[in-house]
């Protein structure tokens, strides 16, 4: 089976066997073999060979290819959304929004490229000071499973636009979506070697990340893998590494007037995508006392009624499955571990069928847990911490090595300003859900969440480097010579 796209050809893999499974029915959706180190070599060689021509293409020429890619995605939107739903388990309505984000990424990236990495010039003495940008060369893009289309696309589109060649290694859990995406690039007329698709898991990732022929790596995934890559790139300041990693995101609730609005916003923050967004609220900080008790009672009632189901079920569920039976088992174990350590289940997360990765929302009160793990539980498991003062809530919110997203639900501007001043995260929201960040804004975190190379609107910044120059049509002697030099 032809699973990799290398040097303009589809070819079978020669590495480890891979399968992608429907997380609910366990039906096989895709199978093949991963790329070996030799196949990675071939893709890097093809990209190196294609680079100078692609970089020398006019910007308009590259934009034309990107726009044909967007048109292809639009025309195949239903098919791509279905593949996303099948492979990830997310409901079709949500998968459709992912395809829309992929299409929109093209126009947004063009705008961002022009704004952040365009050309500037102005007089400086008797010369012209010029600022232009150049692509890095050959870059690898590693994608996560939770947004198998949109998130790798958020690196690939701006990278190609800037003139880089790309080696795309999607998550081994979502190869089918990657294949469809690459088909659209081919249909768009991308020249041979400019984009390669290397399917595979850890083995392929290790071979690609360590390849001497790459000039950089753009990664979205877990903090664990991101840290491994960071260590691997240590001592290589010549290579660009952009890391978008996870979070242990806090959402503080103040005593607000509209309890239902708060509950709805919490649900959208914690349980959308079955809790599989890096921006999901993981820790909900609730005031001690009667008001806090009433809010939690309402939250438990609403969360307990959330419809969970297969991606294509009608009427549509709010939450689909998590990515795999293994992920479901790990989440159930994480809940059990917290419960064994003084947490209380306000709403126990359950797995109604042992052979399907569907989980119901879980809400645990972990206030009494002595040493709370600073871990990202990537699923529908929300931890509640009760606080006694707003200051202690902010301190608790910041008690994490991560720093991706943080939010406050409060009717008080003064409190928001206090929160904003003290919070440590790349996304800080007020009375808005933590999830659903805009592609027209920068997107990235601090601490264990990233390495200060924000993505989305700022992806243009890591896809090209600035070249400053002083230029003059004529080589002339200056009016005054430097002392000590005679001609
Ligand atoms: N900050 C952000 O923008 C986002 C972060 N994420 C994070 O991604 C995670 C979920 O995605 P996963 O696919 O589980 O992440 P992951 O870290 O397991 O995998 C990401 C990619 O790295 C590859 N990989 C895994 N081990 C590797 C190794 N040793 N060497 C080289 N490559 C390796 C995988 O095959 C995959 O392509 C969550 O932690 C989530 O928070 C997800 C979306 C957005
Ligand atoms: O990358 C962009 O264009 C914007 C960032 C984005 O889409 N964020 C999403 C998904 C993040 C995740 O994978 O968890 C969000 O904030 O919900």
UniProtKB/TrEMBL annotation:
Substrates-to-products reaction catalysed: N-succinyl-L-glutamate 5-semialdehyde + NAD(+) + H2O = N-succinyl-L-glutamate + NADH + 2 H(+)
PROSITE patterns, A to Z: ALDEHYDE_DEHYDR_CYS, ALDEHYDE_DEHYDR_GLU
Q: Which residues form the active site?
A: 244, 278
Residues of the Aldehyde dehydrogenase domain: 12-461
Per UniProt, the keywords (alphabetical) are: Arginine metabolism, NAD, Oxidoreductase
Does the keyword section mention NADP? no
What PANTHER family has UniProt attached to this entry? ALDEHYDE DEHYDROGENASE-RELATED
Q: What is this protein called?
A: N-succinylglutamate 5-semialdehyde dehydrogenase
Lineage, highest ranks first: Bacteria, Pseudomonadati, Pseudomonadota, Gammaproteobacteria, Pseudomonadales
